């Protein structure tokens, strides 16, 4: 039988990191393909730009932080969450070796003590309003610091830019996810001082984070397409739990 042409699914990705792991497994293990979907993926660098792409209709879906959906809808934006991904904010705080020495941070300190010592430091994020921005503000704001006065938040774009800025001494650290945080450590540029995945940030545990977003008009016009996309994600989640080593390989 003549092979059917895959149905195109347009996707907006933000700055690449392992917070998109559900989507990467769905792609790498072939679950989108099994649903007859061919991905047309565009990297727009930040979460707010993903929101703009979804609301503008230039893409069908975007895997992004649930907080962005809440922020957009509270301001009258047309965007909805179709599917959950996982429930934790996996944003690590990395500091340069010099910043750690200057601030007197010890890795065995509590998160509260570490954060109090980052006052005056320059901390990189991907962009304003992003998940990295939210985490930087949450870490500091809930521990007695004013993120707009007590630290300098620097929009640096993607993970490669963060690593370059850290290496050149243009920033004291950054908030980002795997594998960029671990890469900084492996290269000797700095160390992870706060890691939500290890329980360092209680307020981030159990928080719904990456979800699949679309807009209401897209749901009306392309519901069968979106059902296939959600099914691909669901199969990817099951696959990740049941076949951990193979999930590692495809990611």
Give a description of the structure.
By secondary structure, the protein is an alpha/beta fold. It has helices at residues 21-28, 31-34, 47-56, 66-74, 97-103, 111-116, 131-141, 159-167, 180-186, 216-221, 223-242, 244-250, and strands at 7-14, 37-45, 62-65, 80-84, 92-96, 122-125, 152-155, 173-176, 190-194, 210-214. 43% of the residues are buried. The longest helix is centred in the last third of the chain and has 20 residues, at 223-242. It starts with 6 loop residues before the first strand and ends with a helix.
- Low-pLDDT ranges: none
- Strand line-up across the major sheet: 7-6-8-5-9
Structural class: alpha/beta
Helical residue percent band: 40-55%
**E-strand count:** 10
| Mean pLDDT reading | 94
Coarse shape: globular
Structure annotation, total helices: 12
Kindly report how far apart the N and C termini lie.
Answer: 32 Å
Percent strand:
15-25%
Oligomeric composition of the shown chains? single chain
Give the topology.
Blueprint (H helix, E strand, L loop, with lengths): L6 E8 L6 H8 L2 H4 L2 E9 L1 H10 L5 E4 H9 L5 E5 L7 E5 H7 L7 H6 L5 E4 L5 H11 L10 E4 L3 H9 L5 E4 L3 H7 L3 E5 L15 E5 L1 H6 L1 H20 L1 H7 L1
Parallel strand pairs: 1-2, 6-7, 6-8
Antiparallel strand pairs: 3-10, 4-10, 5-8, 5-9
